[in-house]
Each structure stands twice: as structure tokens, then as C-alpha cells.
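G., the chain you wanted modeled:
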Amino acid sequence: MRTNKALIILDGDETLWSFKWHELIWASELTPPLRRARKNELIDSKGVILFLKDGTRTFLEIATRKNFLLSMASHNDWKPNVKSILELLELKNYFYHPQVDWRSKDQQIASILEKMEKNGINIPTENVFFLDDRPNNLEIAQRAFPKLHCLLITKETRLYPDAWNQILSILNHL
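Predicted structure as C-alpha cells:
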């Protein structure tokens, strides 16, 4: 059985990915079918481009290699778009029991933790990190789980490689 150091729960929109030339808020607003345009980019049927933020794929690879368990809590619809995004960008296998729906983030996190417990994975709440671009989502999660580490992820994509490195540096001290 694999021993995980920590659980990292990531938001989707504006945390893992963003959109070019459009003011979309959620991946659920993309118009299927989606297709892969480049390694880290997808395009929908109307020409809207979704792209992984700089350094995101490397972050996921390193975090997984270092035995950090990853999951997702995202306000979106799982089908058809988010499921397709994760499959087309070859990211689906990184995420344990992703919660992609319209419940509050604290409810999504509770569901992830319950599923882990049912499967014999016990990571103390003080070793759980939640990354999101919206302060209100972090506040809701923090109220429900006071020992949860909440990290605000900036929307500035040019800062992403450094942000991911800083997060890994924090996690390496566990």
C-alpha cells in the first residue's frame, strides 16, 4: 500500500487551466466536442481555447512522484467537458475521486475525504492543501476544516511556474 504524505485538492478553472481570447468563467461553458490543439491546449467547436497554466503539468508530475495524492474540487459539470478536458490533456489519472459539480467547495472536499477514508487512505487534515483562485471558496473550506491549508492561486499566468515551485517547496517540508 502506498503511503501518501499529503493530499492536494486543486480547483480547475483559473487554477489548473484558463481560456484564451474569451471571458469564460467555467469549463462547462465550452461547446463540445473538444479536441486537442497542442500538448497543453484544447479547442471547442466555436474556437474557444482552453490551456493549462504554465508549469501545471510539471507540478502534477512532480507532486505525484513525491507521493502527494491529488484530487480536484471544481464548480463545473463533469460531463461532457471536464471529463473530456482531463482525458484529452492526459490528466485524468492524476486525480483521485475528483469532485466536479455545483456543490460548495467544503462539501466537495468532505466528499473527497470520505471516499479516501472508505478506501483506507488516512491523511490528517493538517496535511491537506486546497488551492483555488477565489478567496471566498478558500474561506468556506477553511471554516469547515480549520486545519486545512488554503492557498490562493493568482490568475496571473506568468507567475505560475514560480507559484508551483513555491507550493512544492512548502510540501517538501512535510
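The first helix runs from residue 56 to 65.

Shout if anything looks off.
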